[in-house]
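Re: that backbone. Tokens:
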């Protein structure tokens, strides 16, 4: 009698979904002097698995990184920039900046972007 063993990998099991929370971290990066430097920093950060988006601002000396929490941590971000030849540290966050509602035009907005 030829019995076929049923293996778990042959079964259609429901896939376990891991919920990973998207996070954003700002890094202060020093040592960048040109667009090529900014591109190297962006490539180093973008090469990390779990990183979803990188924006490097040369003039401000900052990199904003969007990634999935649990797959990347801030230490790995700083290490990637260091390995690319630049110095980085996690930029301080403004306390409560994300919790404040946007200011309306009557609250003294001086830009034309939202009040135009």
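Recovered sequence:
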């Amino acid at each position: 009698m030829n019995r076929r063993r049923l293996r778990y990998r042959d079964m259609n099991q429901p896939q376990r979904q891991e919920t990973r929370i998207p996070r954003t971290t700002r890094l202060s990066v020093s040592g960048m002097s040109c667009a090529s430097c900014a591109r190297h920093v962006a490539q180093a950060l973008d090469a990390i698995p779990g990183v979803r988006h990188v924006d490097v601002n040369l003039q401000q000396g900052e990199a904003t990184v969007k990634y999935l929490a649990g797959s990347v941590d801030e230490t790995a971000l700083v290490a990637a920039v260091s390995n690319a030849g630049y110095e980085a540290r996690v930029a301080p966050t403004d306390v409560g900046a994300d919790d404040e509602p946007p200011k309306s035009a009557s609250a003294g907005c001086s830009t034309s972007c939202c009040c135009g």
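The helical segments are 35-46, 74-83. Residues 20 and 68 are 6 Å apart (CA to CA).
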